[in-house]
Specification:
Length: about 290
């Protein structure tokens, strides 16, 4: 499926629909929230810093609400879910951190996997009783370089590599998407689990490595290769709004998927491994204490 001309102006009317977007105060999340609100959706900006979230909401025309959510803290995730009432048409698992120095979350998870995967895993499963349509999880091309070590997810035995840890977390996102869809299909649930990636989008995500040379190189890449956040958000918006099969993966259609308009794209063999996806799910349930509720 190629949609070389599809853009945010092609979003269908979304009045009456509620969408939760994590990490919606900046970058791709802000663009996603802005365009969905423009199309008429009620958009919940689920953010760690509510002051920044309120600043972002003031830049958005439409129906918005800011709620506190720290994906690096299971207690915060539970508070968010416990405080929710009513339906959610779409959950967009957008928030993430990239190639940061080693650290751990409030619950002892390696910080990138804890935020990018475990946090969204817990959030999705806790909110699933409210979700009526679909879950869209934002991954990355970096998943292709990722490997999942189920025996050392927190890098206790391996020498920590920020890029490898990020790739592991993005591979985990796709395996989560795959296994969630499999579990929904198993009970003939019509809801869908989808994934998207932005290509290379120029955001502040690339500036937190604490390695000056790497940060400089990524800034150069942002100028030479990257597309604007408005383009990078299109695959997510496409996955949110279009009639796609479950487990679909959407990304840019040009220049090695770095740039372009949204289309269905492929995933690595590792990201298609049903056995590893099932094992990661079991580990995630054990680590977070959260199980699927359908």
């Amino acid at each position: 499926m190629t949609n070389s001309q599809w853009n945010a102006a092609d979003l269908p009317e979304m009045k009456g629909r509620t969408v939760v977007v994590t990490g919606a105060n900046s970058g791709l999340g802000l663009v996603t929230a802005r365009e969905l609100a423009r199309a008429g959706a009620r958009v919940i900006l689920a953010v760690r810093d509510t002051a920044r979230g309120e600043q972002a909401a003031r830049r958005i025309e439409g129906d918005t609400e800011v709620r506190e959510l720290d994906l690096a803290d299971l207690a915060s995730i539970r508070r968010f879910a416990d405080g929710w009432s009513g339906d959610i048409d779409v959950l967009v698992n957008n928030a993430g951190i990239m190639m940061v120095p080693f650290g751990t979350t409030a619950d002892g998870f390696e910080r990138q996997l804890g935020t990018n995967h475990f946090g969204h895993f817990a959030l999705t499963n806790l909110l699933l009783p409210h979700i009526t349509d679909r879950v869209v999880t934002v991954s990355s091309q970096a998943h292709r370089r990722g490997t999942i070590d189920l025996t050392d997810l927190d890098w206790q035995r391996r020498r920590y590599n920020p890029a490898a840890a990020y790739s592991q977390s993005k591979l985990a996102n796709l395996l989560f998407t795959l296994e969630l869809q499999r579990r929904l299909d198993a009970v003939r649930d019509s809801r869908r689990s989808l994934a998207a990636h932005p290509g290379w989008a120029a955001t502040n995500l690339q500036s937190h490595s604490a390695q000056p040379v790497l940060d400089f190189a990524m800034r150069l890449g942002n100028k030479a290769i990257a597309q604007e956040p408005e383009m990078g958000a299109l695959p997510t918006l496409f996955a949110v709004s279009q009639d796609l099969p479950g487990a679909s993966y959407v990304g840019p259609d040009g220049f090695y998927e770095y740039r372009g308009h949204p289309t269905l794209v492929g995933r690595s063999a590792a990201a298609s491994d049903l056995e590893v996806a099932a094992e990661l799910w079991k580990v995630s349930e054990s680590r977070t204490g959260v199980s699927l509720r359908v």
